[in-house]
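As a warm-up, study this chain.
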Amino acid sequence: MKWSDEAWNECASVYEKILELPFLNELMNGTLQKEKFHFYLQQDAVYLAEYGKILAGIAAKLNRKEWREDFLKFSSDTVVVEQALHEHYLKSNAKAIQATPTCALYTGHMYRQLACASIEEALAAVLPCFWVYKKVGDYILENQTKTENPYQPWIDTYGGEDFALAVQKAIAICNEAANETTPALRESMIRTFNLSFKMEWMFWDSAWRLEQWPV
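Now compare it with the structure written out below.
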């Protein structure tokens, strides 16, 4: 079994819970409150600013030239695509945004893998952001019924073919890295992947709740 199949199977129940999230279901049918979507996008901007740096940091640690080039492109594409979405929806909103507890937890988790763990674990930590968004984007495209959805640009971004190619590359790199390492490290990659996967659920849930710091 490929490492990616094993990792996804470990998280299958979490993915089902992601598809049940009210945030995504209301986004799919176009009824999501703008306040919640804008809150999500603002936190997403904070998250992606760090995610792009983490992807570039991974690139710097990779020994294979083609993998390094792929991750540098992932990093730059993340900025370009997300800036386009944020400009479309948030427009001139220049207010400084503080990371929520969930956003800080997720980016901190990935930074920890980059700084303190193996490169294989760092690769596993960033993969769910690619893969879950692609799966969710495809699911929404296949199941949405409303023809005029105010969130269609977001849906089309993650359900599109260009994003699919990036996801396939990221999965393939993780599979090769897992094949070349020890069984123990392969298991550690799955645990790291699992944590990031759960934080994907937490991120959308936190937007639904308009999460704030309790103190």
